[in-house]
């Protein structure tokens, strides 16, 4: 049974989409923000794979065509950016300075805490790009000797955190301005946060898209410069 | 529509910087220079944007192979992720908000 299923390349995609659909339904029905569909889906899929004895590599192979959509899906964030281009141009300096300070905070806090907990250099490097999109973060971490699947996991955990708690964090830090909300979400929680920002408003979504790109590029440049302090 | 995306991507492949980010910048430029009308990509874009969060599921499942490496450090990693995310969120948001308020106050004078 499991041999038949794992040899079918549609099995992984069908399983993922079914569970994804179910996880979305679960959140809608319960209304609980902590039951984030990504979180629930990952737990459910790992459980199914373990029970059926299908190794991760087989699952990933089945998903490879589907995962290929990641690049065009990220590119599509250009559309909300374009639609808000006037607002962005007018506030470019404020947004970029916010992103720069946020990116430095992220690198210094993560690096400092890694040093404090005496984590191995490979783990530190894997954690440093945790606030940026995995499209940039994973290759950067890998190039510096990190473990890319750890990087992807902390990146996604960060994204879910930013997505779920965006409203709460805006209240705690008294961030009421839609542009500042977008900058905060995009800088700290990349693409996954941005899907929440887009739900909050068109301006938040566009600023968040811009911020995630800026934070990603800045991190790619700053990480090699700063990592010497921490490892 | 898809042809365009494919075209953009193939142009990007020789570059070492992630294709997704180059593609995003190129698509934005194309829209701003009116090479592409927003209507042309609206439908595809909406569809892919709705699908985007689901695409993150598979790479995270890859974690099941990393359990042994990560488990002993898990409490530290969780603390690092949570604390740095909250601080990054607060700092970037508050700075952008302050700068915007300053600018608005100036223009009112």
Keywords, separated by commas or semicolons:
heterodimer, A: 231 residues, mainly alpha, 13 helices, 84% helix, globular, B: 109 residues, 2 domains
Largest sheet of chain A: none
Tally the beta strands of chain B.
Answer: 0
Overall pLDDT confidence of chain B: 77
Shape of chain B: flat
The number of distinct structural domains of chain B comes to: 2
Q: Which value, in Å, is the CA radius of gyration of chain B?
A: 21 Å
What is the general shape of chain A?
globular
Percent of residues in beta strands of chain A? under 5%
- Give the distance, in angstroms, between the N- and C-terminal Cα atoms of chain A: 48 Å
Main sheet overview of chain B: none
The stretches of 5 or more residues of chain A where confidence is low (pLDDT under 50) are none
Structural class of chain B: mainly alpha
The residue fraction in helices of chain B comes out at over 70%
- Using DSSP, what is the number of strands of chain A? 0
**DSSP summary: helix tally of chain B:** 6
Give the count of structural domains of chain A: 2
| Percent range of helical residues of chain A | over 70%
Strand content of chain B: under 5%
What Rg of chain A is obtained from the alpha carbons, in whole angstroms? 19 Å
Mean pLDDT across all amino acids of chain A: 87
Order of helices and strands of chain B: HHHHHH
